[in-house]
Amino acid sequence: MKKISLAGQIFIGLLFGIIVGGIFYGNPEVASYLQPIGDTFLRLIKMIVIPIVVASIIVAVAGVGDIKQLGKIGGKTILYFEIITTIAIIVGIASANIFQPGAGVNMNQLETTDINSYVDTAESQESKTLVDKLVQIVPTNPIAAIAEGDMLAIIFFSLMFGLGIAAIGEKGKPVLAFFQGTADAMFYITNLIMKLAPFGVFALIGVTVSKFGLASLIPLGKLVLTVYGTMIFFVFAVLGIVSKMAGFGIFKLIKLLKDELILAFSTASSEAVLPKIMEKMEKAGCPKHITSFVIPTGYSFNLDGSTLYQALAAIFIAQMYGIDMSIADQISLMLVLMVTSKGIAGVPGVSFVVLLATLGTVGLPLEGLAFIAGIDRILDMGRTAVNVVGNSLAAIVISKWEGVFKPKQDKSVMEQAS
């Protein structure tokens, strides 16, 4: 009998979770049983993400050892991220204007959800200027940055550490060997944890459906359809064109990442797949020093699905309240989102925090978010999957741009993409 692939196992877990959640909809006891299983799986993933990022970047940078080359890669990466996320914002705004998902919504029929837990975080983010955010990339205490999960500060410190190891030559080899061993051990642990993914997915989706029920989607069905339709268009049209230019078709990329996409979608957690997409893109032909820098950095600067959703949701709220946003207002919204959406990936409920910070700045009512908070988890699943595709493609684009993309004939990987 043929063994079921990991993607198949995760999909089965997803289906069973939806069925169990639907059967026990409104029963809080189900969530109390399933939530610890889902939380344990996510905690296992989060446990290994930072050690992998730190070790991988240090090993990759020490291997390159050229600060000019790294600076050039960094500049190209940030430029690419800015272009793609700006296009995502424009696509989100355009879709909201074309399909008008907020027009005619009866707010009296919608349930509201408490969003106070996000307000304080949003206010603290609003008070930071772009210069403040840039300054905070440099950690005063790298151990504290690691403890807090501040990804940009961790990346900066790891880059500096890697350059230091390269600069001291022979003396740095034992340190480099230690981090190489750490990376290898963490990837081994990742493969063990991934065997638990079907159970984690079953629990997490079961909790979601049992709490909110599929019926909760009906009053905001037009928003859900517009968000998902727009994200599908963005992946296959925008990212599809980019991938074709890079010589690695979008369908080939999605097939290569099918396990990770199902997992990211089910858990609504990009962190759940970070180690595996780094590993897969390296095996697909991207050099280690590029995957180790581009993909973790993309988690703060290249959240295509999230920025698209934030733009669309902001216009949706304006439409729901009957607020007519002029072209100038929408350009202002785009410019604000270009700033507020950067560098806060480690903040819980990041899309809500960004939206809260953005709505206040462009004069839209914050209370509108309370109407869509209940279905945010369903929307989060889609935007997380789009983020994964965008960051994986970014590694290929930068590798091609640098002229170092070398497809490898690794059977285990290339068979999945063929």
From TrEMBL:
Keyword Membrane: yes
Gene Ontology MF terms: symporter activity
PROSITE patterns: NA_DICARBOXYL_SYMP_1, NA_DICARBOXYL_SYMP_2
Keywords: Cell membrane, Membrane, Symport, Transmembrane, Transmembrane helix, Transport
Topological type in the membrane: Multi-pass membrane protein
GO biological process: dicarboxylic acid transport
Localization in the cell: Cell membrane
Pfam families found in the cross-reference section: SDF
Residues passing through the membrane, by range: 7-25, 45-65, 77-99, 151-168, 227-251, 307-323
Descriptive protein name: Na+/H+-dicarboxylate symporter
Organism expressing this protein natively: Bacillus oleivorans
Lineage: Bacteria, Bacillati, Bacillota, Bacilli, Bacillales
